[in-house]
Amino acid sequence: MNSTAQCPSCFYGSICQFTTLYSGISMETFLDMPFLSKEIAFGGIAVMLAFGTICNILSIATFCQASKGRGNRIYRLWVTIVGQCGTIVFALRLFLIISRQSSGILDCFLLEYLISVIPVLYYSLTACVFIEQTVVAHKHLHFDKESSRHTASLVIPVLIIYHLIVNLYIPFQYQLLRDPYKPTRSWCSSDHQNYSLTRFVTIINTMHLILPFILNLTSPIVMIMILTKDKLDSKQNRRFWSSLKDVLNTYKGNIAIPYVLTILTIPYLVVNFRLNCITQSWQNAIYLIAYFIYLIPLPTSLFLFILPSPTFTEELCKIYQRTIVYVRLRQY
């Protein structure tokens, strides 16, 4: 039963327990979708977890093998680690919601906290990847790999600690509410009585969503401009469009990835600003779809950071070949 029609403006749910005015979508909206059977949901969760785990483990193994390179590889390694943690946390949260049809202390406080931290940390780390690519293009032969690794070893823990601390309000913001229509069901709901806190939440969520989006959008443009200018400077008679075409062909993998992430962010960005006041059930479904599109990169690091790169693809092939040799030796 959804009593959205009797709820205050911008609140929805069977007891008006949900809102997207101040924070993101709640995973518990799955419970308001009667057309989604348990079997389909469990099957989807299992496939997502298995697929994401395989992809991320292969990516982690590849980046660990290549970890002696510049800081960019360290960023990519931690992007993949965070993506795998996110895949596990989201799968566990959905499994608990669907299997128990109710929220408990673990999923309402700890898992909701991790769900708030992991996606924004993931996108922050991807922004670091593309920022360093731009720095490499700018410094070129003067780029210091040792300094890059040292910077990455400082930036990564700072970002992790920052996102863990800035989201510490979340466990204190949530509360377990009993459903009067179904006494066995509890809902994990945000308490928005504190205006100062809700204002802070709105500002932080907006900043964490927009800043990586802008960086992922602009860093490839800056990199293209730098590389094109370098080509024009090295060959005086070369035309601009010819140089630009060469740069796009040479660095198409590095350029495409941030724009893939940008495209996956756009639906969630749009619904956050255009659909932040949900009054109809179909709006809730659209918000949920946009949110899951936003989460697609977490289990797909293999396709985002390994396969588009000839260097990393070659290293992945070496891992595969060594694994085959090891398995054959074990058989004898």
Keywords:
single chain, 332 residues, mainly alpha, Rhopdopsin 7-helix transmembrane proteins, two-stranded antiparallel sheet, 11 helices, 4 strands, 71% helix, disordered N terminus
Describe what you observe in this structure.
71% of the residues lie in helices and 6% in strands. It has helices at 38-65, 71-100, 105-139, 145-166, 170-173, 195-234, 240-250, 252-274, 281-295, 301-306, 310-331; strands at residues 11-12, 18-19, 174-179, 182-190. The strands form two sheets. A two-stranded antiparallel sheet has the order 1-2. Strands 3-4 form a two-stranded antiparallel sheet. The longest helix is centred in the middle third of the chain and has 40 residues, at 195-234. The radius of gyration is 23 Å and the shape is globular. The termini are far apart. Mean pLDDT is 81; it is low at 1-5.
The CATH topology name reads Rhopdopsin 7-helix transmembrane proteins
**CATH domain class name:** Mainly Alpha
Q: What fraction, in percent, of the residue positions are helical?
A: over 70%
The outline comes out as: globular
Number of domains: 1
Q: Give the biggest beta sheet.
A: 2 strands, antiparallel
